[in-house]
Specification:
The chain has 82 residues and is α+β, with helices and mostly antiparallel strands. The radius of gyration is 12 Å and the shape is globular. It contains three helices and five strands. The termini are far apart. It has one domain: Ubiquitin-like (UB roll) (Roll), CATH 3.10.20.30.
């Protein structure tokens, strides 16, 4: 799966994108967030920041949205306009 990190999240993690083999038992956006947070350090933002948004294959996704091997999952903070 391809993971993309945008805006302040990219700066926090020091990473814009990565490829990840989907771990067994990770079937939803929420489980993916928990898996990433388990890396510790800056990655804990995935459990401490409830405002992070996700998109799966370029469609907005909720925490219960399914994820599968081969998907593109993007994470980003809320966007405001002005």
């Amino acid at each position: 799966m391809k993971l993309l990190y945008f805006a302040g999240l990219r700066e926090t993690l020091g990473l814009a994108a990565e490829d990840l083999a989907l771990p067994a038992g990770v079937d939803t956006v929420a489980q993916l967030r928990s898996h990433l947070a388990a890396r510790g350090g800056a990655w804990e933002v995935f459990t401490t920041s409830k405002s992070l948004r996700a998109a799966v294959n370029q469609a907005m996704a909720g925490t219960d949205s399914p994820v599968r091997e081969g998907d593109e999952v993007a994470f980003f903070p809320p966007v405001t306009g002005g």
